[in-house]
Amino acid sequence: MQIYVVREKDTVDIIGRIFSVDPLEIAWANQIEPPYRLAVGQSLFIPDGGSREEGESRFRNYEERSMGIRLGGYAYPWIDPSVLQETASYLTEISVFSYGFTEAGDLIFPQEAGENRIISEARRQGVLPVLVLTPLDSEGRFNNNLISDLVRNLQVQQRVIRELWKVAQEKGYGEINVDFEYVLAEDRDRFTDFVRRLHTVMSVFGVRVTVALAPKTSGNQRGLLYEGIDYQALGDVADGVFLMTYEWGYTYGPPMAVAPLNMVRRVVDYAVSVIEPSKIMLGIPNYGYDWPLPYERGVTKARSLGYTEAVQLAIDHGVPVYYDEKAQSPYFHYWQYGIRHEVWFEDVRSVQKKFGLVKEYGLAGAGYWQLMRFFRASWLLADEEFGILRQ
After folding, report:
1. Per residue of the chain (391 residues), what is the pLDDT tens digit?
2. pTM
3. β-strand pairing of 365-369 with 280-285
4. Using CA atoms, how far apart are residues 201 and 225, in angstroms rounded to an integer?
5. Which residues pair with 184 in a beta bridge?
6. 125: which DSSP letter?
7. Is 272 exposed, middle or buried (0-12, 13-18, 19+ CB in 10 A)?
8. Which residues pair with 284 in a beta bridge?
9. Is residue 129 a contact partner of residue 123, using CB atoms and an 8 Å limit?
């Protein structure tokens, strides 16, 4: 396996000859459609042959698959079935996003048909299904007031925990992931206590409990996103944590990398100082953003896009892709209808650098937000880096 950066006058055929690899293998691995156009600066995953062996999982169950690095991601119930099937073959776990709850503690279900399809495919391929709990209300909106309603009321907590146990047993979930953002500072200890109670009950039945954590770089970091999250305490009471190391570049923010490696490293540095590394999953974004320029705070809105869409934009507009060495992320500019745009996204180079952090720090593994856009090269890279399919 190698990563190749496209140069002027390169074609898939030329690159295939350089590496003695079938050009169609390169095109398949990198989702390059006929007429096989390339962008200068585009990074390509060069397979070593045999990577196109699609089909059944090589594992009978989650325990066999999860002997080494864990690899997962979040999926909405409406994920495309073909994307689900191929993606699942590279995973150890898949998180169904998401269950919510009412003020009284009654669970709110996602689209049941889609949920069942994900669980069924996960079971077929030996992948652990994960139930994600968020403060999603009955109208389908995220309501962070529900967090306070829950953690301040023991009776509501008991009802939520009882219903989570029931769903986990009925549907075969092997893990519950608590994904609460904007926990109030005054609810910090209460939130930890809720996770502890949830873990105490679920551990009896062999169900893991994990927590998604906002990307803190210090214990006393200020801000609504951070003050209610106690890394050390949550790391102690949960089976594992998921670091949401993305959204530095975001919809209403200025143009920049979504997950600049220098900032991701700072989060990991802090996390491993207070949490056992073997409990930590590193979050990786499976998306980028396209900003119209000039950026105006409070006015400019970026649109989200995936790897293949970003590269196609560069190709269609005939512009090169550049790579920021500090952020370890690709970017480019293009003009459309008299407006200049700036695009930052993820490619196999940037993903490989993040996988490098997993290995360098001895983390449990990595998880993607989210799996709805298919990025085959990143999964092939994960297989090469971690050997998940060849244990």
Report:
1. 799 999 999 999 999 999 999 999 999 999 999 999 999 999 999 998 655 554 444 455 555 555 579 999 999 999 999 999 999 999 999 999 999 999 999 999 978 999 999 999 999 999 999 999 999 999 889 999 999 999 999 999 999 999 999 999 999 999 999 999 999 999 999 999 999 999 999 999 999 999 999 999 999 999 999 999 999 999 999 999 999 999 999 999 999 999 999 999 999 999 999 999 999 999 999 999 999 999 999 999 999 999 999 999 999 999 999 999 999 999 999 999 999 999 999 999 999 999 999 999 999 999 999 999 999 999 999 999 987 543 3
2. 0.94
3. parallel
4. 28
5. none
6. T
7. middle
8. 368
9. yes
Into which CATH architecture does domain 62-290+345-390 fall?
A: Alpha-Beta Barrel (3.20)
Q: Is the peptide bond before 98 cis (omega within 30 degrees of 0)?
A: yes
The two three-digit tokens of residue 326, written as one number: 């500090």
DSSP state string for 202-257: HHHTT-EEEEEE---SSTT--STTTTT--HHHHHHHSSEEEE----SS-TTS-S--
If 0-12 CB within 10 Å is exposed, 13-18 middle and 19+ buried, where does residue 274 land? Answer: middle
- Residue ranges covered by each domain of the chain: 62-290+345-390
* Options 181, 247, 276, 309, the catalytic residue: 181
CB distance 91 to 127 below 8 Å: yes
Distances (CA, A) of 351 to 18, 148, 290, 312, 369: 24, 36, 19, 19, 13
Q: Which two tokens stand for residue 275?
A: 């949490």
Is 181 an active-site residue? yes
Q: Which helix (H) or strand (E) holds 296?
A: none
CA dist., res. 378 & res. 375, Å (int)? 6
Tell me phi and psi for residue 348, to 5 degrees.
Answer: -65, -25
Give the integer Cα–Cα distance in Å for 251 and 308: 19
What is the length of the chain?
Answer: 391
Contacts of 204 (CB under 8 A, 6+ apart): none
- Which helix H or strand E contains 267, and what residues bound it? helix 261-274
Least Cα distance to 311 among 26, 22, 31 occurs for 31
